[in-house]
Every structure is written in structure tokens, then in C-alpha cells.
Design brief:
Order of helices and strands of chain B: EHHEEHEE
CATH architecture of chain A: 2-Layer Sandwich
Strand order of the largest sheet of chain B: 1-2-3-5-4
Oligomer: heterodimer
Largest sheet of chain A: 5 strands, mixed
CATH topology of chain A: Transcription Regulator spoIIAA
Strand content of chain B: 25-35%
Strand order of the largest sheet of chain A: 1-2-3-4-5
Strand content of chain A: 25-35%
Largest interface: A-B, 27 and 31 residues
Distance between the termini of chain B: 17 Å
Radius of gyration of chain A: 13 Å
Order of helices and strands of chain A: EEHEHEHHE
């Protein structure tokens, strides 16, 4: 997975490219830990994220809690349908601030 | 068709596990969505074994893969010799809670249960044997 960071004033946009799995989730955690100083708004751009597993969800939850605790904001944008499905199944869609997503809630099919 | 992989149960081997699964089913040309669901299931089970079965040491996991056509489905059996652990006994996390009240954990098995058609666990001969079946959409 590729992690592209862009800091503008106090807004950090993190674009994730590829797969957020158990291996890459650890890398993301390290990257975020080192980059959040002074950040008031954290935006994840998931336009090029094809896959997310529970390890990735844990990172999203961890940083949502952290931003909440400090009175800051976290947003998720451009979620792909495959990733949105996982967020829906786990109820993450309900508490994450997902903006400009054109993807509707999916039912689970086999 | 039957395939088998024996590999060290460490998280860094996840890519090798995925490669084995993808290679075994590439002929079926399954949909992107089904593949993502299958990857998710495989990751959650493998990472669970890698994280807990032999902790703090490491050990091996054997993955048996069997496919059936008409209807197209895959059966995966994960066998390890670690501590007895039945993931089916784990209670589901409450998916209606807010971020604040959420625990970090328990989501992997929950997702797995949702995404497979059948899942069973046995502890036989000192081994954890976890079998799951999932139908595959082209």
C-alpha cells in the first residue's frame, strides 16, 4: 500500500493506495502517529483503496477516537464500493464521517 | 481440485497465502467483489492464527483448499497445532455502538462469519481444525 500525505495548515489529507491489510495497517499506524502533531482535521482519501480488513478498521477506529478525544475532526472521502461494504457490515458507516460518497448501503449477498 | 500449503504462521506471510489462494482459483475468473470477500476471510483467519495460536513463539499452519464447480464454491481448512481456540464461540461485537464505546477487536471473526456460507471448528489430535465454505460468484 502507498500512503500519500498532504498537509495544508492544520488539515492532513492521507490518501491510501492499494490494500489496507494486517501488514499495511501497522505501517499506516506508524505514519499517522508521526504526522498528527497540530492536526485539527484528518481526511482519509480512499479513492484508490481496493481492500480493507479488520486490522484497517481498527486503525480507523483508533484515530477516530483520538481525534474525538482532542475535539478534532476526522473525515473519510471517496470510498469505493468494496470498502464501503465492509464499513456497512461492521456498522462503521454509522459513526465515521463519510463525505461525498455516492455509494449506497449494500445488502450482503453470497 | 485440491491444493495444500504449509507455511509459517506469521503476519508477514499474508501475501504468500493470498498468492496461493489466487493462483488456485484464477481459472474461475471470479468477480472482484467475491475475491475481496474471500481475501478478507482468509486474512482474518490467518492473522488470528499468526497472532494467537503459538504466541509468543511461532509455528506452522496448513491450509487445505478444495474447489467444486456447479455451483462454484471453495472450501478452506486451516489446521494449526497451537493452543485450542474455537473462534465460533467468540461473541459478536455490538455493531451499533458509537466510536467512543467501541472496543478495538472482535471484528475479524464477525466479518468472516458474515462472508462465508458455512464454518465449523474441531479440536482433533491436538490440532485446531477450522473449515469454511464459500460460494464463488464469477
Amino acid at each position: 500500500m502507498e500512503i500519500q500525505k498532504q498537509l495544508e495548515n492544520t488539515t492532513l489529507t492521507v490518501a491510501l493506495v492499494g490494500r489496507l491489510d494486517a501488514v499495511t495497517a501497522m505501517e499506516l499506524d506508524k505514519e499517522l502517529k508521526a504526522s498528527l502533531e497540530g492536526v485539527k482535521e484528518l481526511i482519509f482519501d480512499l479513492a484508490k483503496l481496493d481492500y480493507i480488513a479488520s486490522a484497517g478498521l481498527r486503525i480507523l477506529l483508533k484515530y477516530q477516537k483520538l481525534m474525538d478525544k482532542n475535539g478534532n475532526e476526522m473525515k473519510i472521502k471517496n470510498v469505493k464500493v468494496e470498502v464501503k461494504e465492509v464499513l456497512d457490515m461492521t456498522g462503521f458507516s454509522d459513526f465515521l464521517n463519510i463525505i461525498d460518497s455516492k455509494v449506497k448501503k449494500l445488502s450482503i449477498e453470497f | 481440485m485440491k491444493e495444500e500449503l504449509v507455511i509459517k504462521a506469521v503476519i508477514d506471510n499474508l501475501d504468500d497465502v493470498n498468492f496461493f489462494i489466487h493462483k488456485s482459483i484464477e481459472q474461475f475468473d471470479i468477480s472482484k467483489r467475491t475475491l475481496m470477500q474471500l481475501d478478507l476471510v482468509v486474512e482474518e483467519i490467518f492473522v488470528n492464527i499468526a497472532s494467537y495460536a503459538y504466541s509468543p513463539n511461532t509455528g506452522l499452519v496448513k491450509i487445505l483448499l478444495e474447489t467444486e464447480v456447479e455451483p462454484l464454491s471453495i472450501s478452506l481448512t486451516f489446521i494449526d497445532s497451537g493452543v485450542p481456540y474455537n473462534p465460533l464461540e467468540k461473541s459478536d461485537p455490538d455493531v451499533n455502538l458509537s466510536a467512543d464505546d467501541r472496543q478495538i477487536g472482535g471484528l475479524g471473526i464477525f466479518l468472516t462469519k458474515k462472508l462465508v456460507n458455512n464454518m465449523s471448528y474441531q479440536f482433533v489430535g491436538g490440532q485446531n481444525v477450522l473449515q469454511l465454505t464459500k460460494s464463488l460468484q464469477r
